[in-house]
Amino acid sequence: MKLYGEAMPAPNPRRVRMFLAEKGLDIPEIRVNLRKGEHKAPEHRARNSLGQVPTLELDEGTCISETISICRYLEELHPEPPLFGRTAIERALIDMWVRRIEFQIMTPVGMFWRHAHPLTAALLTQYKDFGESNRELYARGLKWLDRELAGRDWIAGDSYTIADIALLSTVDFAAFTGLVIPEEAANIRAWHTRATARPSAQA
Amino acid sequence: MKLYGEAMPAPNPRRVRMFLAEKGLDIPEIRVNLRKGEHKAPEHRARNSLGQVPTLELDEGTCISETISICRYLEELHPEPPLFGRTAIERALIDMWVRRIEFQIMTPVGMFWRHAHPLTAALLTQYKDFGESNRELYARGLKWLDRELAGRDWIAGDSYTIADIALLSTVDFAAFTGLVIPEEAANIRAWHTRATARPSAQA
């Protein structure tokens, strides 16, 4: 099994690395150089026609892309510790939290990065006003999540899960782009300190 | 078990109804009236703090939101016919296809609807140029998917899955907003005819 990933700060390859660290797994990662455009080269497009990372290549040749799908596959092979839930209800709720983070928090960060950040301005046509409007959506998403987090340690309840991995990489990437956690989101700030203290956060 | 949904053309409640039809399941659906703002009322916010539909309320009181998470839960209770895959690899690849459809096809449709459609213009601040730019992203996404579909009947392979449900509701909602399947995407057009011929498409 081989993992095609990339160095920080790309949030998706980091998610898989954090997941592997939480599981105590070691899968060799080939660092695809995004700045050199290696992800758009024919060799990588044969693994993922969208030219994205991460992609997991199995020994029999099948390639699995999409961060959460890769982690979901690895969870089935290595169920302990469970990061996607132990029961049908837990699995549904953790899946719900991952999706809420992706649609409410990650999408505004992605749109800000894509349409308002100077580093992408050189490469792509931007709609700057739209891009800037995502600052407010990101802050609003985190304030909503802050209320949801009241009284619990982790996004989906008492245990650290893939939903925490999804949020930590998103918030850290957002900070890299210049988007900060709102001052008043005290539960998110405390959660961020807890999540960052785990060894997997270094991945 | 009760399902809070809504009438056509809202694509997410329809996805759950198509899933139930494919499974031969009957769960009572309470139609929340989005035009009257019933999804933002306190009673529904108690089920889903984001004020979205669909939400599945279990008899013991737990509420599961997010279309795919609801379907994933129902798949565990009623595994036949399998719509999320039978093996770990199948489940990972079907999950990958759902995500690709959401990020490559559904996101542009949602952004077009949100930022360029006259029906939402009355309700929300739009970034119209950005919204219009999603026509091209939608067409590009379908052309990519058209190449991927060559030689197979369904999105994830030989069997109809949740990925087909995700795409059918997206493409039909896109048509409602004025976005059409590109003329040259012959594989997508043939797939659309096949998917629409299934009784579940009437849901």
Task: Provide tags for this entry.
homodimer, 203 residues, alpha+beta, Glutaredoxin, Glutathione S-transferase Yfyf (Class Pi), Chain A, domain 2, 2 domains, four-stranded mixed beta sheet, 8 helices, 4 strands, globular
State the gist of this model.
2 copies of one chain form a homodimer. Helix content of chain A is 55%, strand content 6%.
What is the CATH C level class of the largest domain in chain A, in words?
Mainly Alpha
Q: What is the CATH-assigned architecture of the largest domain in chain A?
A: Up-down Bundle
Q: How many distinct beta strands of chain A?
A: 4
The class by helix and strand makeup of chain A works out as alpha+beta
Helix/strand layout:
The structure is a homodimer of 203-residue chains.
Chain A: E1 2-5, H1 11-23, E2 29-31, H2 42-47, E3 55-57, E4 63-65, H3 67-77, H4 88-116, H5 118-121, H6 128-149, H7 162-177, H8 186-196
Parallel strand pairs in A: 1-2
Antiparallel strand pairs in A: 1-3, 3-4
Helix pairs in contact in A: 1-3, 1-7, 4-6, 4-7, 6-8
Q: What do you see in this structure?
A:
The structure is a homodimer of 203-residue chains. Chain A has 203 residues and is an alpha+beta fold. The first copy, chain A, has two domains: 2-77, Glutaredoxin (3-Layer(aba) Sandwich), CATH 3.40.30.10; 88-202, Glutathione S-transferase Yfyf (Class Pi), Chain A, domain 2 (Up-down Bundle). Chain A is 55% helix and 6% strand. The first copy, chain A, contains eight helices and four strands; from the N terminus they run βαβαββαααααα. Chain A has helices at residues 11-23, 42-47, 67-77, 88-116, 118-121, 128-149, 162-177, 186-196; strands spanning 2-5, 29-31, 55-57, 63-65. Chain A has a four-stranded mixed sheet with strand order 2-1-3-4, covered by helices on one side. In chain A, strand 3 (55-57) and strand 4 (63-65) form a beta hairpin. The two termini of chain A are 19 Å apart. Chain A binds chain B through residues 49-50, 58, 62, 64-66, 68-70, 72-73, 76-77, 88-89, 91-93, 95-96, 99-100, 104, 107, 115, 125, 127, 129-130, 133, 144, 147-148, and chain B through 49-50, 58, 62, 64-66, 68-70, 72-73, 76-77, 88-89, 91-93, 95-96, 99-100, 104, 107, 115, 125, 127, 129-130, 133, 144, 147-148.
